[in-house]
Design a protein that fits this description.
Length: about 325
Amino acid sequence: MKSTPTITTLIVTYRRPQLLKKAIESVLNQTYPHFELFICDNASGDETEAVVTEYCSRDARVKYHCHATNIGMIENYKFGLASVQTDFFSLLSDDDVLLPWFYETALSSLLRTPDAIFFASSTIVMTSKGKVIRIPLSLWEKEGIFYPPDGMLEMIGKYPVPTGIVFRKKILNHVSIDEENHLTWDCDYLLNSARQFPIIISKKPCAIFLQHSKSYSFSQTTALWENTFYRIIDRLEKNFDLPPPVAKEAKNKVLLDLFHWHLQHKNFEQASKIANILSDWIHHHTRTALSFRIFPFRSIIMLIFDFLREIKHKILIEKKYQKYYKYLK
């Protein structure tokens, strides 16, 4: 290695000082020490400033900026991204944590694969009591390098969690945040990245996403969630400059993701409408066709599905990933 690359860790925060401490500690505990931690406080007006300035006094790698007024979440992210000066960066939510080997693992892989625009590791979605909810990258059939448009198409419905991603800075010259999509702008950002550049997917656990009732996404309405799906479809069709067959496949995958989202939340009427839209597409996809064939028996199937999912979690997922809970305590 001719030089030692530095990673900028960007944390945007608002009134979560206790959770923020854990996020900061998880960065400072990285086995890869070459990073700059930049915390952008959206005018919290509580003990956040005191918490962060204490870390700044102890470690010169920690930097802090507090806005005079609340500029909104998206603008805060844009401010932080505009401040990145290093070759690599990561986005850490103020309520999530990194596992100690994350940066070392990511940099090792990115330096071996100079064309890849980001490295995405497996992020464990977990509650504060240690219940494992899901691991999105476990749904990918394989790991490794994905080239456009394969990476973009593969990630729909099983998006990598940004907390577990390290990006190359050059992505900032090619992809910007969709300011009209406050809820799933990160999914849009990843799709836009993967349509242009190769990406690296690793199923190695490197981060924990804390799921809790006070998170921004948890508290949003069904209507807003549905609108964000259609916003992504609109951009896939109009803004991503995709070949028509690829754009059509991506659109159908997003609609299928929305179909499953409605089923999960027992919005059967909305799911039925989407099933009708996708009826001509599903026969190409065996698993999708099965979902639609059992759809008329949805009430019974959902009860069975919920029961089997709990068993699967107990036997497979929780047993495998429960050991990482100690990093969240």
